[in-house]
From TrEMBL:
Organism: Vicugna pacos
Main localization (coarse): membrane
InterPro entries given in the database record: V-ATPase_116kDa_su (IPR002490), V-type_ATPase_116kDa_su_euka (IPR026028)
Protein name according to UniProt: V-type proton ATPase subunit a
Highest taxon above the source species: Eukaryota
PANTHER family: V-TYPE PROTON ATPASE 116 KDA SUBUNIT A 3, VACUOLAR PROTON ATPASES
Basic and acidic residues: compositionally biased ranges: 668-678
């Protein structure tokens, strides 16, 4: 847990990997997930790297795996998860996996092709049987005998042109949505010189492509003349109709139908054998594909990592650079030695200096991951910067609970999160694919603390589903007020509202032991009292939270050796913040402790005092809280204003002076070098040349100071901090506003639902029948409105308070995460 407060120390290491053992070493590093490789071939195209051929072979295998996986899903099967820990296979196994994969894919293609061909043949046989068995023949035969009598002309043309014409038939099947268009087109193209009959098949036939049952339309067309027959055949071809031979004799059709049924039976047996063989092939795919996918994915990742390495001049080893945590260096060295022992030459690891900012590494567990995610959503911290996540574990749920304080609502949220925590190790819970559920499950510990803190603040507000609870005796006595004030029946009848005077002896017995006194829930001025209390509480919490953020910046300055920022930035910021708004917190606390119930009526106004503080004036009607208050207020305002130029100009002027001092130190050795170069001795000249060479790296390390940029950056920081202290303090009033909104929504929901249900009947049976739907509606609206909607609103406002008001006091968030080369991500 120590690394949670600041990111771990990360160093840049150089790895010398023997060529024969490079693959094994990188594979072992992928299993451990310790290092993040740097690309040493950034200027080299991806197609010109050393292991590009191996990467392409892995990609080709992945394409084949995708085909096999789709075939398994097409068959309605699922791939089981791989069993055990699968290591990256040796390079020699790639050829074996590729051959077996190609063989499986070819077998699957052949069997699937045979299956499709057999299904298409069976489909055509079934359609042909349906056409022959639909009964078109008897109807059209009758039509054929009656039709010449109807159309027999009165005067027969000489020569008997129609005597040699015979009736021909075209029979087939078409999809139902094309039948109407086909019939219209046939009638118009042939000008009515045909007779067409369309009927639906009695049974649905399986589609050979999709496998879904579908209804087909069978048709039988009788026509006269060869030209009309050619038109009909062309039209049916355009509509992609199945056309089958059709004879006039009933006996021939019956024999053909029996023959078709026998062929269908034989084809179904062949198709069954084909499908059984297909299931065997798919079973082999289910058994072999999952481990192959993992192994090839790991192999591809290894080759991609090797492509980031450079080759030594002797081509005997690969050189890699990687970021690694300092505490993982012994583990890294041991892993490389074990992996390269078979090659006869051990891999070498050594640290190298680097001017680049290292990545940020903060290890988390299932409890701290959600809180670290809140911080990283704002921005990943710079290397070795103070991490706000440990403090967010307490402050975030607490600020949420201030806006969501209710014992009942907090308890429901706590129980929901507790159920997820207790079931976190169950596979069904972990593998759930619902995105909303995954969001809740990932933040289960955050929800747990949010619910627990909400129960705590609910006890402080004394609210449970908007109802007050009398855990302890009230600090107010109505009986004492009635006895000493002489309230008669006539007085009570004329005054519906009664006031309790704390100055009367025995009326106010003392403060409530914990939280708000439950008698305030009966008072008319209940809302005014809570508004005053929550508004002042919000200011106190806000100023304390911001001050804590400024104090955390001290640890950043001490760690990075920026001692000047303690006096030129942190100290002025604390004086400005505490001199103005810290004084406001002091006034609130002092008034709470100093003013008692007896003097509450004549208590001075803090708001007027705070306004007069900036105006350097006083109000005769508003008495001071303590002696010498005006002098203290004037002094604090002057000190706060005096810190602004220090905050604005202090750091730039200090950096300018420091830069001039370093420049003067660098110029003096250069003057000595020029004197030595003027000496005619060759050895002295060579000595001066060597000194120049030795000094050049130091010159490169110096970064030129651009004073205008420093002034601009400091001016932005000063304006942002000074104005932010005012706006951020006002922003914390959202704690009061959201808490008030939550309490009022709870009150409205209780009054509009439960109170109406409880007052609808006095008899036990009526109440029991009425309360069931009433309570169901109350429960649904409580969860939907108060827990989900109000909870999300309070969560977003607490998120804003941490990002904008708290973290910007010390946290830059301009770093980048350490992304180690690990197979765990590949497996997911």
């Amino acid at each position: 847990m120590g690394s949670m407060f600041r990111s771990e120390e990360v160093v840049l290491v150089q790895l010398f990997l023997p060529t024969a053992a490079a693959y094994t070493c990188v594979s072992q590093l992928g299993e451990l997930g310790l290092v993040e490789f740097r690309d040493l071939n950034a200027s080299v195209s991806a197609f010109q790297r050393r292991f590009v051929v191996d990467v392409r072979r892995c990609e080709e295998l992945e394409k084949t795996f995708t085909f096999l996986q789709e075939e398994v899903r097409r068959a309605g099967l699922a791939l089981p998860p791989p069993e055990g820990v699968l290591l990256a296979p040796p390079p020699r196994d790639l050829l074996r996996i590729q051959e077996e994969t190609d063989r499986l894919a070819q077998e699957l293609r052949d069997v699937r092709g045979n299956q499709q061909a057999l299904r298409a043949q069976l489909h055509q046989l079934q359609l042909h049987s349906a056409v022959l068995g639909q009964g078109h023949g008897s109807q059209l035969a009758a039509t054929h005998t009656d039709r010449p009598l109807e159309r027999n002309p009165l005067l027969q043309s000489p020569g008997g042109l129609h005597q040699d014409l015979r009736v021909n038939f075209v029979a087939g099947a078409v999809e139902p949505h094309k039948a109407a268009a086909l019939e219209r087109l046939l009638w118009r193209a042939c000008r009515g010189f045909l007779i067409a009959s369309f009927r639906e098949t009695e049974q649905q036939l399986e589609d050979p492509v999709t496998g879904e049952p579908a209804t087909w339309m069978t048709f039988l067309i009788s026509y006269w003349g060869e030209q009309i027959g050619q038109k009909i055949r062309k039209i049916t071809d355009c509509f992609h109709c199945y056309v089958f031979p059709f004879t006039e004799q009933e006996e021939a059709r019956h024999g053909a139908l029996q023959q078709l049924q026998q062929q269908s039976h034989e084809l179904q047996e062949v198709l069954g054998e084909t499908e059984r063989f297909l299931s065997q092939v798919l079973g082999r795919v289910q058994r072999l594909l999952p481990p192959w996918q993992v192994q090839i994915r790991k192999m591809k990742a290894v080759y991609l990592a090797l492509n980031q390495c450079s080759v030594s001049t002797t081509h005997k080893c690969l050189i890699a650079e990687a970021w690694c945590a300092t505490q993982d260096l012994p583990t890294l060295q041991q892993a490389l030695q074990d992996s390269s022992s078979e090659a006869g030459v051990s891999a070498v690891v050594h640290r190298i200096p680097c001017r680049d900012m290292p990545p940020t590494l903060i290890r988390t567990n299932c409890f701290t991951a959600s809180f670290q995610g809140i911080v990283d959503a704002y921005g990943v911290g710079r290397y070795q910067e103070v991490n706000p996540a440990p403090y967010t574990i307490i402050t975030f749920p607490f600020l949420f609970a201030v806006m969501f304080g209710d014992v009942g609502h907090g308890l429901l949220m706590f129980l929901f999160a507790l159920a997820m925590v207790l079931a976190e190790n169950q596979p069904a819970v972990k593998m759930a694919q619902n995105e909303i559920w995954q969001t809740f499950f990932g933040g289960r510990y955050l929800l747990l603390l949010m619910g627990l803190f909400s129960v705590y603040t609910g006890f402080i507000y004394n609210e449970c589903f908007s109802r007050a609870t009398a855990i302890f005796p009230s600090g107010w006595s109505v009986a004492a007020m009635a006895n000493q004030s002489g309230w008669s029946d006539a007085f009570l009848a004329q005054h519906p509202l009664l006031a309790l005077d704390p100055n009367v002896t025995g009326v106010f017995l003392g403060p409530y032991p914990f939280g708000i006194d439950p008698i305030w829930s009966l008072a008319v001025n209940h809302l005014s009292f809570l508004n005053s209390f929550k508004m002042k509480m919000s200011v106190i919490l806000g100023v304390t939270h911001m001050t804590f953020g400024v104090v955390l910046g001290v640890f950043n300055h001490l760690h990075f050796g920026q001692w000047h920022r303690l006096l030129l930035e942190t100290l002025p910021e604390l004086v400005f913040l505490l001199g103005l708004f810290g004084y406001l917190v002091f006034l609130i606390t002092y008034k709470w402790l100093r003013i008692m119930a007896a003097g509450a009526a004549s208590a001075p106004s803090i708001l007027i005092h705070f306004i007069n503080m900036f105006l350097f004036s006083r109000s005769p009607t508003n008495q001071p809280l303590f002696h010498g208050q005006e002098v203290v207020q004037s002094t604090l305002v002057v000190l706060a204003l005096a810190t602004v130029p220090v905050l604005l100009l202090g750091t730039p002027l200090f950096l300018r002076r420091q830069h001039h001092r370093r420049s003067r130190r660098r110029r003096q050795p250069n003057e000595d070098k020029t004197r030595l170069l003027d000496v005619p001795d060759a050895s002295m000249a060579n000595q001066g040349s060597d000194e120049e060479k030795a000094e050049s790296p130091g010159d490169q390390e110096e970064v030129e100071l651009v004073l205008s940029e420093v002034f601009m950056h400091q001016a932005i920081h000063t304006i942002e901090f000074c104005l932010g202290c005012i706006s951020n303090t006002a922003s914390y009033l959202r704690l009061w506003a959201l808490s008030l909104a939550h309490a009022q929504l709870s009150e409205v929901l209780w009054a509009m639902v439960m109170r109406m249900g409880l007052s609808m009947g006095r008899e036990m049976g009526v109440v029991a029948v009425v309360l069931v739907p009433i309570f169901a509606a109350f429960a649904v609206m409580t969860v939907a409105i108060l827990l989900v909607m109000e909870g999300l609103s309070a969560f977003l406002h607490a998120l804003r308070l941490h990002w904008v008001e708290f973290q910007n006091k010390f946290y830059s968030g301009t770093g980048y995460k350490l992304s180690p080369f690990a197979f765990a991500v590949e497996d997911e």
